[in-house]
Write a structure and sequence with these properties.
eight-stranded mixed β-sheet; 30% helix; alpha+beta
């Protein structure tokens, strides 16, 4: 009921009477009073004025199921929310929930991730109160060989969400590193369980440095946070909701063709690799070239001195990003 009370208070420009809340939720005034006090104890500033009712003054930057449910505007993503204050990995937990039958669109969120995984097995941890660590659990009716493109769909949702909430200029380093001022602020990891011709489930993990005020010395030149770029803190739950809304939009566009043909142009407009010198760390032999955008399947087009190549996976370094000069 606390999520519903928060939603009702947010919908009103003024005060909401205790009686109206009682009638809306079919409970006693005492139950409403207790729920409001519990919300106050978690950090919400709620005024209670006799003969007027309740009014929400300010919202703390907390991640909780109640907070996320109270601001949810999506159609299907986040209809089921699984939240824990501390989690080893949101992707691992989402995979477990998928095996247990969790539905399409389940959102897994934690305030502190202490055993998260990045690309190529890299570890990613989030101290409490500083980051967004979340995973979307999807059960799309698509061919398994098209699933990897959902990473780019997610990247588009993240850049658009960050733009809306911060006004910052955001870019994408192919395929899915989110960049601000030549430093990484967010990463995405997509994992899948599938049969030969059938997807069981897909999990898309998204990590964003939000309130981080400082990084270890070895990361200061390559990592940043929204706080460091913006100079102020933002509400993480509001950013999660905005990203979820954009993901629904881009996912719907993707399903129309089961490729990226309808968003290639927009993706390329955010691509920090675009028309810049790149170094492709090919497993056989690294080579240099100039990036020319992506194909409808998300491959990176790279022009070398001898030919145009399609890069479908692997590390691609961009001059001026992450120390590549």
């Amino acid at each position: 009921m606390k999520a519903e009370i928060l939603a009702a208070l947010r919908e009103s420009d003024g005060y909401v009477s205790g009686q109206d809340l009682c009638e809306k939720f079919g409970v006693s005034r005492t139950a409403i009073w207790k729920a409001v006090n519990q919300l106050k104890q978690t950090g919400y500033e709620i005024e209670a004025v006799q003969n007027r009712g309740y009014h929400i003054v300010s919202t703390p930057d907390i991640l909780s199921e109640n907070e996320l449910r109270s601001i949810r505007k999506t159609q299907w993503l986040g209809k089921k929310i699984y939240y824990e204050p501390v989690m080893g990995s949101t992707n691992t937990r989402a995979m477990q929930l998928a095996e247990e039958g969790a539905p399409h669109g389940t959102l897994v969120v934690t305030d502190r991730q202490d055993n998260g995984r990045g690309r190529r097995g890299r570890k990613w941890e989030t101290p409490p109160g500083t980051a967004i660590a979340m995973t979307f659990l999807l059960r799309p009716k698509i061919r398994p060989n098209n699933a990897s493109m959902l990473t780019i769909v997610a990247a588009m949702a993240v850049v658009r969400g960050i733009e809306d909430e911060t006004g910052l200029k955001v870019g994408i380093k192919w395929p899915n590193d989110i960049i601000i001022n030549s430093k990484k602020v967010s990463g995405i990891l997509t994992e899948m369980s599938a049969q030969i011709d059938y997807v069981n489930h897909i999990v898309i993990g998204i990590g964003i440095n939000v309130q981080t005020e400082d990084f270890p010395e070895e990361l200061r030149d390559i990592a940043t946070s929204l706080y460091l770029e913006l100079g102020r803190k933002i509400n993480r739950a509001a950013l999660i909701e905005k990203i979820c809304e954009y993901f629904e939009t881009y996912f719907r566009i993707f399903l129309q063709t089961e490729d990226l043909s309808l968003i290639v142009q927009q993706y390329n407009s955010y691509l920090v690799n675009m028309d810049r010198p790149v170094r492709v760390m090919d497993a056989k032999e690294p080579y240099d070239g100039k990036a020319r955008g992506i194909t409808a399947r998300g491959e990176l087009l790279v022009d070398t001195w001898e030919s145009r190549k399609l890069v479908s996976s692997g590390e691609v370094s961009v001059r001026g990003i992450y120390g590549y000069v």
